[in-house]
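I am hoping you can look over what I have pasted underneath with an eye to the fold:
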Amino acid sequence: MTLRLIRDDVPDPPANTGEDRVALEPRAFEELFEYAGGMLAILDSEGRFVAINSACRRVLGHDPSDLIGRSLLDYVKPHSPSGSLGAPSELAASAETDQGRVVELLGRHRHADGSWRWLLWSGAVHGERWYTAARDVTDWIRLEDRVGRDPLTQLPNREVFTEEVTSALARHERSGRCLAVLFIDIDSLKQINDSIGHEAGDRLVAQVAERLRLAVRTGDIVGRLGGDEFGILVESLGDESEAVTVAERALASLDRPVELGSGPIAVSASIGLSTAYGAPSTAGTLIHEADIAMYQAKAAGRNRFAIYDAELRAKVEHRLGLDRDLGSALEHDQLTLAYEPIVSLRDGTVLGFEATLRWEHPERGVVPAAEFMPLAERSGLTIPLGLWALRNAAEQLAGWRNDGADVFVALRVSPRQLADDAFISGVREVVEATGLPRRALGVEVAEAAALADPSSAISRLSELRDLGVRVAFDDFGSGYSSLHYLIQLPVDAIKLDRSYAVGLSSEDARASRAVVTAVVAAAHELGIRIVAEGVENQVQLEALLAAGCDIAQGPVFGPPAAAGEVSFEPLAGALAAGGEVSTKRPVPRRRASGR
């Protein structure tokens, strides 16, 4: 039968001595049995109804007399959950071993109208009879199913999937066997939604879910963890290679385009894999590790998997250590600025500097901004760190200009800074406090940040220019560049992505030179200055000047330096006025003062 034992630890009822028993007529017991609000039934050892009350008609739609002599199994779903009592003989065996003990059983029963109802039975065996009561809990079960499943894919949701991982870890803790969690993220779902609409995007997600479900082994659990995120729990593995096979099958299942009403859509995924070998762990840790590995796969080019291993764990621990210490970096005066010169290619004149944050960690040494600023972005420290850099760079610039240096200083601004009113207010305060002339202080906004929301970027950049701040469009050409935006964006300069400078000294230099020449010509027509970033050698310098670009920065001019180490003298590596390359690196005669 399909009754599942869900609780057998109910304490035995206390012995009744008969001293407190109320004398009732047999008729009273019969009426209590008949008119009770819930189902009451007496079954024999083989599960046949001996007696059942009238509530049966209300709960299951059957007349009680129709059930007398019939087996309860006739009204129960034939495919029962594992662990249920599976046959009348097993019920008989229970009658022999569970005398007088109260147990609870959950079963799915056929209603007279053909529907199914879940009944919770509670009762005890006395002699060869089961004395039971049943309660209809169908609505509870439906609610549990609804809460535990993702409505779009019908897969277990994140909460249920996490519970399954927790249970699996408990099963494997002593066995020494391997289990794995795969964290799967659909690549570029946002772009797909933007192009075909969210309704079609939902159908795509549902099809991906079905393919993943069919790709795994029997017994593996697939869950939907978020909008474009899935998890797979893989148990009883001999080693990690078996989990890798599951990951490969999951990727292969997405090789074929997904067919939607609008046509076939190519889809891929990035997968992170984390394993546990019976060692103490938690579901949250295992899923988080798989999530980290997934981002590693995405960073490596997408449509692949990555394994959370010792090397990746070391990187994560390093990052977490930095994340933990970053909050006190300002408080303990561990931040400094480094200045990279921006140089005229005509005569080597230092026109200005790009200021970048450096963190002088007491144990890890100098940590570059590229390593810790993403951490600041996630932890909400971007604004205070950015304002600190802005104030200190402005004060240093004011000091240099008071000493007679006609230069500017620019700082890179993140999308979060650009969107934050507190940062814009901070810029206003700094400009007013230092009294710097217009365009002496600058900000650089990455191309991707500006083009992600052009209308908002135009508004913010216009505010900054109105404050007298120099605005540059950074990393131009690294994304979906459009010369159309040069007309709309209120910028003073465009900084070509370093890939263009590198291309000028490659085998395909002709193509890079044609692109650079076109961009430079268009920008000059609009009165916008062009700065080449990441220039490494003299070949690139010559090609840039030939293409019309006469301002550059990069390793060819030396590394970024502390404020007290920068030079305002013409720098070697630039082109002389006559157009010849200067191969001599003169020793600077005057250094800037560091403040």
Remarks:
- The radius of gyration is 36 Å.
- Residues 1-11, 78-95, 576-592 have pLDDT under 50 and may be disordered.
